[in-house]
Design goal:
The chain has seven helices and twelve strands. It is an alpha/beta fold. Helix 2 runs parallel beside helix 3.
C-alpha cells in the first residue's frame, strides 16, 4: 500500500525529528493520521523521498521521525520549460496541475497582447503562490519528488528581453512553414516552449520571439485550445 505523500520544503535527514511546516502539518491532520502512522516526505534539496513516522499530533503542530531515504526520481529524460500566455478563468489552474503531472520542468506565466487574464502587483503574486501550491499538490498526487517552480508573472516583451542562453527555444505557431515539433527538437536537449493565450500570439510577438531565438513549430493540423497545446507539446517532447 502506498503511503500518503507530503511535501516538506525543509532539510531532511534520516534519524532527525522535525516539526512539519504549517501546510504539511494541516495535510497530515486532514488525513487523521495518528502517532505511529507512516508517511512519505519529499521536497528537500537532496531530492528523492523519505519514509517518516508520526510521533506527535497536536492541534496545530505535527512532529515526525524521518526514516530511510530512497533516491527515487520520476522526471522525464528531457527538461521542458513552458512559457505560457495565461488562459483565463480556472483554466490556468488546470494547466499547471496537468503540466506538473506530465513532468514540466518550470512554468513561466506571461501577459501578452491578446491575454484575457491580466495580472500585476499583489494580485499577480497571490496568483503565483496559488499556482505553486497547485504544483505541489500535483506532485503529492502523481509521485514526483521535484516540484517545478512557477515563476513570477511577467510581460512577454520583458521576458524576451532577457539573454537567450540556455535550452533550445520552440514557438507554437500557425504560420505556414512551421516544422513539426518532434522533428525540430534536438534529441536529448532541454527545451523552452512558448505558447500563446486564447487567440494566440500577435504577429509582432511572434516576430519578437523569433528574433529572440525561437523556432516556429506546429503540433499538427488541428488548432488546439490555449490550455491544451502546451500539454500536447509536453507529451510530444517527453515521450
Amino acid at each position: 500500500m502506498s503511503l500518503p505523500r507530503i511535501h516538506c520544503a525543509l532539510p531532511l535527514a534520516t534519524g532527525s525529528v522535525i516539526d512539519l511546516p504549517p501546510g504539511a502539518a494541516r495535510h497530515v491532520q486532514v488525513l487523521r493520521l495518528q502517532p505511529g502512522g507512516l508517511i512519505t516526505l519529499f521536497g528537500g534539496e537532496q531530492g528523492g523521498e523519505f519514509e517518516a513516522t508520526v510521533e506527535h499530533m497536536g492541534r496545530s503542530d505535527v512532529r515526525v521521525l524521518v526514516g530511510p531515504h530512497h533516491a527515487l526520481e520520476r522526471e522525464p529524460a528531457r527538461a521542458v520549460h513552458l512559457v505560457l500566455g495565461m488562459p483565463a478563468n480556472d483554466r490556468m489552474d488546470w494547466l499547471v496541475e496537468k503540466a506538473t503531472e506530465l513532468g514540466v520542468a518550470s512554468i513561466q506565466p506571461v501577459v501578452t497582447e491578446r491575454s484575457v487574464l491580466r495580472l500585476n502587483g499583489e494580485r499577480a503574486q497571490k496568483k503565483r503562490e496559488h499556482w505553486q501550491a497547485v504544483a505541489v499538490a500535483a506532485c503529492e498526487q502523481c509521485g514526483r519528488n521535484r516540484v517545478p517552480p512557477v515563476h513570477a508573472v511577467r510581460s512577454l516583451s520583458d521576458w524576451l528581453a532577457q539573454p537567450a542562453d540556455g535550452p533550445q527555444r520552440l514557438l507554437l505557431s500557425l504560420r505556414a512553414g512551421a516544422s513539426p515539433v518532434h522533428a525540430t527538437a534536438v534529441a536529448g536537449s532541454a527545451v523552452t516552449f512558448l505558447s500563446g493565450p486564447e487567440g494566440g500570439l500577435s504577429p509582432a510577438e511572434e516576430d519578437a520571439a523569433i528574433a529572440a531565438g525561437f523556432t516556429p513549430v506546429t503540433l499538427g493540423p488541428r488548432v488546439l485550445r490555449a490550455e491544451t497545446a502546451p500539454l500536447a507539446a509536453l507529451v510530444a517532447l517527453t515521450l
